[in-house]
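Quiz preparation item.
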């Protein structure tokens, strides 16, 4: 029993937000970096902190949240990033602890959590069409560089079970989801998995970034005016389908704008993104393109599952039963998406 539970045994923590000063102290202790400033960037799937060292160097620390899908995939992620960086791919490189560990394991009230440190990615998220094209190029180079990866395997594969099957498990524990709504989603998942089985033989497989929604890469401009892309947040990476990795960008736009069909702005971004991917050496088959509506839907299911699996942390308002019911029509509309470029 912990000290605080001695005062109130009924207090059961589900998620602790560490103070920025604690993160700074741990980085100094375990990485040997004298931290001048630290602040919380955001709480989301993980807790991320910005740090500035005394020498002016900038870093990002990620305090991994406990996820229902299982253990932290950090050994794979750090080894993959080191491999990609060595191959010249544009990624935010990991910073090992002073004793060469990939991460530091810290004991929190809710359980052990992993702390990782990365070099800061200068710049801002892409906005202009040429920046989306550069993002596509960068992703193609990451996919190409990852072909030679031979380090620790990922703890999970971005397959039908990972993208859709887990969501059903998490929804069963949702206190507002009725048996009827759960059955609707069971049928939806069954339909999508059947489509995936029918299509997967012709689909290109890659080592996916897993979360290329347009906000996990920065664009920086040097003194000569040249733009450079840096990709980060590979904690959802793993072996999977090219069509899935490509689908996350249009899904993100559709989801944020609450659109059931692609608008002109999305089409323009998509054309440049795909053009950049191909210009960077990436090959996209007709089968991959035809599967994009399927993977947009699978991505949406994955995202629903991530929220439904965190009811103890985020609450039901992020994925209410009413909202889940409305998404049934969204899935239906997205099944007819036209993303041909």
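Solution:
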């Amino acid at each position: 029993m912990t000290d605080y539970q001695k005062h109130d045994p009924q207090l059961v923590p589900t998620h602790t937000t560490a103070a920025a000063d604690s993160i700074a102290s741990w980085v100094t202790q375990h990485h040997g970096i004298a931290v001048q400033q630290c602040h919380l960037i955001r709480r989301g799937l993980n807790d991320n902190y910005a740090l500035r060292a005394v020498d002016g160097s900038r870093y990002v620390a990620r305090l991994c949240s406990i996820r229902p899908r299982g253990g932290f995939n950090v050994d794979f992620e750090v080894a993959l990033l080191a491999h990609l960086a060595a191959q010249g791919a544009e990624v935010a490189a990991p910073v090992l602890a002073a004793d060469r560990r990939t991460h530091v394991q810290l004991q929190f009230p809710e359980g052990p959590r992993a702390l990782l440190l990365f070099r800061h990615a200068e710049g801002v998220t892409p906005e202009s069409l040429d920046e989306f094209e550069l993002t596509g190029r960068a992703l193609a180079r990451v996919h190409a560089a990852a072909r030679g990866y031979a380090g620790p395997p990922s703890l999970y594969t971005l397959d039908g079970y990972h993208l859709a099957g887990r969501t059903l498990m998490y929804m069963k524990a949702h206190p507002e989801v009725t048996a009827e709504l759960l059955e609707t989603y069971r049928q939806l998942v069954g339909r999508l998995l059947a489509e995936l089985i029918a299509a997967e033989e012709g689909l290109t497989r890659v080592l996916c970034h897993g979360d290329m929604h347009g906000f996990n890469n920065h664009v920086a401009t040097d003194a000569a005016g040249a733009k450079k892309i840096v990709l980060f947040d590979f904690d959802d990476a793993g072996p999977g389908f090219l069509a899935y990795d490509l689908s996350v960008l249009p899904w993100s736009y559709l989801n944020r704008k609450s659109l059931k069909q692609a608008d002109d702005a999305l089409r323009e971004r998509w054309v440049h993104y795909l053009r950049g991917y191909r210009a960077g050496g990436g090959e996209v088959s007709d089968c991959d393109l035809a599967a994009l509506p399927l993977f947009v839907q699978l991505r949406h299911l994955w995202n629903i599952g991530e929220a439904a699996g965190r009811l103890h942390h985020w609450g039901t308002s992020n994925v209410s039963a009413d909202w889940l019911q409305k998404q049934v029509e969204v899935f239906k509309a997205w099944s007819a998406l036209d993303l041909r470029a």
